Amino acid sequence: MSGPEKPKVIGEEWSDERVKSFLFLSPYDARINPDYYVLISAYEGMRAEDFERFIGFFVEAGRDLNAKDSQGETILDHVSRHKRMTAYADILKAAGAKKAAELE
């Protein structure tokens, strides 16, 4: 089995196929922005090095790094609140992600 339905195992190597499989996730609720949903799912399910590869695939696919959730926040807003996750915030910033306030 490969993909987002497989539980996260620390130290396990993820193939490009498994990382890319997150691109095909769909939100359970049509009111949720699909790009935000995919980003938050990847953030919650991947180690930083896999997340960095995922972001490359996400951008290459033409997806929106600055998609917002129902409260108007971007993934960078969300990740930035988690002080121990600076690597993820750095990955997002390097790819061009912005906080919602920067987009206004």
Q: Number of domains in the coordinates?
A: 1
Overall mean confidence score, pLDDT: 90
**Which structural category fits the helices and strands?**
mainly alpha
Query: The biggest beta sheet, please?
Result: none
Number of helices: 6
Amount of beta strand: under 5%
State the shape: globular
Low-confidence stretches: none
Q: What value does the Rg take, in angstroms?
A: 13 Å
Topology as H/E string?
A: HHHHHH
Number of strands: 0
Which percent bin holds the helix content? 40-55%
Distance between the termini: 42 Å
Organism: Marinobacter zhanjiangensis
Protein name: Aminopeptidase
Supply the key terms:
globular, Aminopeptidase, PA4642-like, 104 residues, 0% strand, mainly alpha
Description:
This is Aminopeptidase. InterPro entries: PA4642-like. The structure is a single chain. Helix 3 runs parallel beside helix 5. It contains six helices and no strands. The N and C termini lie far apart (42 Å). The protein is 47% helix and 0% strand. By secondary structure, it is mostly helical. The protein has one domain.
